[in-house]
Amino acid sequence: MKIAIVCYPTFGGSGVVATELGIALAGRGHEVHFITYKQPVRLELLNNNIYFHEVNVPEYPLFKYQPYELALSSKLVDTVKLHGIELLHVHYAIPHAYAGYMAKKMLAEEGIYIPMITTLHGTDITLVGKHPFYKPAVTFSINNSDVVTSVSSNLRDRTLEFFDVKKEIQVIPNFIDKSKYENSYTDCKRTLLADENERIITHISNFRKVKRIPDIIHIFNNVQKVIPAKLLMVGEGPEKEGAEQLCEELGISDKVIFLGNSNEIDRILCFSDLFLLPSESESFGLAALEAMINKVPVVSSNAGGIPEVNEHGITGFLSDVGNVEEMSANAIKILSDDAVLEKFKENAVKSAEKFDILKVLPLYEEVYQSAYKKSLEQKLKV
Ligand code: GMT
Q1: Which of 14, 242, 261, 360 fits a 20 to 30 Å CA distance from 205?
Q2: Domain 179-355: which CATH class?
Q3: Cβ neighbours for 374, distance < 8 A, ≥ 6 positions apart
């Protein structure tokens, strides 16, 4: 099938999922066209079935805000026509589902009918989308998608709670490619970052407020008083500077390493002993899943869809948002004993395997097939 994928190209979870999905679909013989404003960070183009089309927004002094949706919907129309695209899959409702709907309408005027799948990822619903300034457009875009999927049951429930949705929302969880991790990084080189006797604790995110970065620093501070440890903070974002300052105030700067954005997440995770994710809100927690497949247990909040990924007492521990003391105690529980740590590590990887791409990809393919069939029927009716 010829599929167009619209996503954000940045280090955000939705862009990562969209990119990995497109790569996997290309591997199964589909022709995949990524349409976005920059080449997605995890996308390598050396594949016969993968194409990238850049959306350019010409600057014009009259505009206070440059009209990205307009450029995106025009690009979609052109790409669909030029490459004979059969299906549109948009990731993150804002503004992709809205632009996708406009493209569909423009194409229909020319007798071209393509189905649009919208995948909801999290903040497009829980944070940004429900804002009164966006809500009517987001509701409209969801109700006018041919199929709507969400990455967790929790996100589906939140969507039904916040919006007047008249469509069924199908849950298709996020995934990892287990085969990529099987024999990778035996040369972990953990000694580059920590002493032999130190545990390594890791956090990876876009350092936005919702990630509760100060909680991470406080949890680590409590842990390192009991267990020799280093903290690796991976990513860039608005909360990073404050976090560096907090480390200085607590006198632990020499124990906390800020690595910035990285394309070597797996290499970093392969020498980690624990992953922290105390987020305020999280529709799924892809970063936790990536940690788990790399044999890293997770101490997290119980927000949103995290409990669907991190199993309490098995792959790690869950606590109420902001309960730093309990999260610290749980981290110490996992890290203070080699045998306990090993058990949690084994459980983490075993549990992560439930989300292997081989199990999840067919769910998307089924959705594609049925949406495509319906659009053919619609075409025949016209
Ligand atoms: O918050 C992020 O890390 C980025 C954000 C996004 O929309 O790109 O991630 C959301 O989508 C991910 C992939 O589906 C989920 O794993 C994250 O839980 C979700 N983030 C939030 O809900 C805050």
Answers
A1: 360
A2: alpha beta
A3: 115, 146
Cβ-count burial 28-51 (b if 16+ within 10 Å, e if not): eebbbbbbbeeebebbeeeeebbb
Provide the residue ranges of all domains of the chain, joining segments of one domain with +.
Answer: 2-175+357-381, 179-355
Residue 192: pLDDT band by 50, 70, 90 thresholds? confident
pTM over 0.85: yes
Domain 2-175+357-381 matching CATH 3.50.50.60: the answer reads no
* Minimum-distance ligand 1 atom for the alpha carbon of 15: 8
Mean pLDDT computed over 116-142 = 89
Cis peptide bond N-terminal to 238, omega within 30: no
- Does ligand 1 come within 6 angstroms of the Cβ of 281? yes
> In terms of pLDDT, which residue wins out, 260 or 311?
311
151 CB within 6 A, ligand 1: yes
Nearest CA to ligand 1 atom 7: 14
Contact predicate 72/6, CB 8 Å: yes
Q: How far is the first Cα of the chain from the last one, in angstroms, to the nearest whole number?
A: 23
| Residues 221, 213 contacting (CB under 8 angstroms) | no
